[in-house]
Design a protein that fits this description.
This protein has 299 residues and is α/β, with parallel strands linked by helices. It has 3 domains: 72 residues, Methane Monooxygenase Hydroxylase, Chain G, domain 1 (Up-down Bundle), CATH 1.20.58; 143 residues, P-loop containing nucleotide triphosphate hydrolases (Rossmann fold), CATH 3.40.50.300; 75 residues, Beta-grasp domain (Ubiquitin-like (UB roll)). The chain has 9 helices and 11 strands. The longest helix is centred in the N-terminal third of the chain and has 24 residues.
Length: 299
Amino acid sequence: MPINAHPDYIIAEGEYYRAQSTEEKIEKLKKMISLAPGHKGAENLRAQLKRRLVKLKGAKEKERKSGKSTQKGIKKEDMQAALIGPTNVGKSLILSTLTNATLKISELKFSTTKPTIGMMPFSGTGIQLIEIPATDSENYNKNIVHTSDTILIVVNKIEQIKSTLEIVKKDPGEKIIIYNPKEKENLRKIEATLKSKKYNFVIIDLKSKENLEELKEKIFKSFGKLRIFTKEPGKDKSKRPIIIKPNSTVKDIAEKILKGFYKKIKQTKIWGPSSKFPGQIVGLNHILKDKDVVEFKTF
C-alpha cells in the first residue's frame, strides 16, 4: 500500500483482499487500478497491478474452460434486504425498477427459481436487494432471508400479509410491507387498514413511480447505519461514503478501510455533525455521526 494513496484506493485494496472468487477479484483489482496514484513514483505499483490483472484473467479463462464456477454463493454487502412474497406479486419488476438488475418479467407463476441480486443506489450508497423465489414455492430460500438485515414483503392483497409474516416471524430482519396493487383499488381504504394494523408499509405504483423514493428512504433507514465520507488534505470528500454501525469510532472507520490502518494514522480531522467546529482534530476514540467527513494524515 503506497503511503500517499487516496483513501478510496485503500478501501478498494481492502475489498480486493476480501474478495472470494476470481471474478470478484478482477472487479476489485480494476477498481484499484483506476484509483492508483498517478505520479511517477507509483509507476511500479501500477505495473504490478496490471500484471496481477493479466494473471487473474488467465485464471478466469481456465476456470471457464474447465467448467468450474467462479461464484461462491452470495456475498453479503454492508446493507442487504430480501424481497419476498407469494408468486406473481411483482417482486421481479420491483427489483428491476429499484436496481441495476436486468430480469425477464413473466406473468407465469413461480418464474423466479433462484435468488436474484441487484444493487439499489441511494444517497451515494449501494443497497443489496435480493429477490427470493416465491414463499409458496419449493425454491424459497429461508437461509438468505434469515441473515438479511431487512425483509421486504411484497403483496397485492391484504390477506397475503398475515400468512407471509407468519413465515418470517422467527427471522430477525426488520419487516417492511410493500403493497403493490395489481388493479385500480380504493387505496385510501387500503392505507387506512394497513395503518390500523400498525404495519410498517409503503403503497407503491410502479407505472407512475409513486412513493418509490419514500420506499428507498424507508429501506435505508431500516439498517440504522452511518454514512462516513473520507478525504485527502486539500481535496474534496469521497463521492461514496463508507457504511458503519452507530457509535463507531475513528479507529473503527480506519479498520473498515483496511485492517491495521489505524496504526499508520498521524492525525485525524473531522467535519460534520460530530465536530465542534470544521476541521476539528480528534483522537481514535472519537465517536462518529452520520455524514461526517474524516481526513487522515498518515506517517
